[in-house]
Design a protein that fits this description.
Elements: E1 2-8, H1 11-28, E2 31-37, H2 40-43, H3 48-51, H4 59-66, E3 72-76, E4 88-92, E5 101-105, E6 117-119, H5 123-132, E7 137-139, H6 145-153, E8 159-163, H7 164-169, E9 180-183, E10 198-203, H8 209-213, H9 218-234, E11 242-249, E12 252-260, E13 267-275, E14 282-283, H10 300-314
Parallel strand pairs: 1-2, 1-3, 6-7, 6-8
Antiparallel strand pairs: 3-10, 4-10, 5-8, 5-9, 11-12, 12-13, 13-14
Helix pairs in contact: 9-10
Length: 327
């Protein structure tokens, strides 16, 4: 049996898909080959703020999976819409990479002290930059890692903001050589829900569901489930100005979430820790159970994420988050 693994064509997507392919081959004993697929996000050069949460990096891949052009998909989880895809299931979320953002500059000037232009196409990062340092200008930025870093090397931009996980997954061919890297802490600079995590997706009726599930990491799935529940309950798309990071420590789940105004002039945040040992997640020290939403029976992590989102909405977050444009 040969397992066909569908992936976007970018160098980063291919690199992370090869890593999953190697793990899948080892655990299954089967040959795994990559099937490159071009997504809308790879050819549409419009700003991420206008593309919104339409699943531009996932839709074409999912169509290929449903059509039988491949057997398995690997996505960057942060690019996936929160709504379930009919007929498909995320069978594994492997161990998460570094979830932080990093700032890349020529001379190592910290973002807080920078005077110049920072490149990013993410509405969340744009809002964070404005909130963190109102002196800098922000330039819309798309393209692969090499092209983004090239604009810093050439002096066109003073800095760019990238995901640490992507740089790490590119491996030995260090794309930041000769540049300086500043790591941004997750407490003050939470990143996109699911950032640093991969999603391995298969058809719901596939015989590979259990095979792929062997790659799943419980702590990663718990954390990213909570993060995506926050985003789903806020009714925001993948490009919403929302930063969320969750971590599992023992029997506790800590969720830090911040919703930003696009111009960085306002933010609303929550930092809550929940117990994972009750029928539903319970805020530690409150004595109050977090109820299921609309009669649903979510996992404990989902329940915790929904609770955080409700608190954000009660404080006015709905005024800051653009509504998702697709179901």
């Amino acid at each position: 049996m040969t397992i066909r693994l569908g992936t976007r064509r970018s160098a980063l997507a291919m690199a992370q898909s090869r890593q999953v392919a190697d793990q899948l081959a080892e655990s299954s004993g089967e040959e795994v080959v990559l099937v490159p697929i071009t997504s809308e996000g790879d050819v549409n050069r419009a700003s991420l703020s206008t593309l919104g949460g339409r699943g531009v990096f996932a839709t074409r891949l999912r169509e290929a999976l449903l059509a039988g052009e491949c057997d398995v998909l690997v996505h960057s989880l942060k690019d996936l819409p929160t709504a379930p895809a009919p007929g498909l299931v995320i069978a594994a979320t492997p161990v998460r990479q570094d979830a932080r953002d990093v700032v890349i500059t020529r001379d190592g000037t910290p973002l807080a002290e920078l005077h110049g232009t920072v490149g990013t196409g993410s509405p969340r990062r744009i809002a964070q930059v404005h909130q963190f340092n109102s002196r800098v200008a922000v330039a819309d930025l798309r393209g692969n890692v090499d092209s983004r870093l090239g604009r810093v090397r050439d002096g066109e931009l003073d800095a760019v903001i990238l995901a640490a996980a992507g740089l790490n997954r590119l491996g030995e061919a260090d794309p930041t050589k000769g540049l300086r890297v500043e790591e941004l802490g997750l407490a003050e600079w939470p990143t996109a829900p699911g950032q640093g995590s991969l999603a391995v997706e298969v058809r719901a009726d596939s015989e590979l569901v259990d095979v792929v599930a062997a790659l799943d990491d419980d702590a990663t799935r718990t954390a990213v489930t909570a993060e995506r529940a926050v985003l789903a309950a806020l009714d925001g798309g993948c490009a919403a100005p929302v930063g969320v990071h969750s971590s599992v420590v023992g029997d506790g789940l800590r969720i830090r979430a911040i919703v930003y105004a696009r111009d960085g002039g306002r933010r609303i945040g929550e930092d809550r820790t929940f117990a994972l040992t009750e029928a539903y997640a319970r805020e530690i020290g409150s004595g109050n159970g977090a109820n299921a939403v609309d009669g649903a029976d979510p996992t404990r992590a989902q329940s915790a994420g929904f609770d955080v989102a409700r608190r954000l909405l009660d404080r006015g977050a709905a005024d800051l988050v653009p509504r998702e444009s697709t179901p």
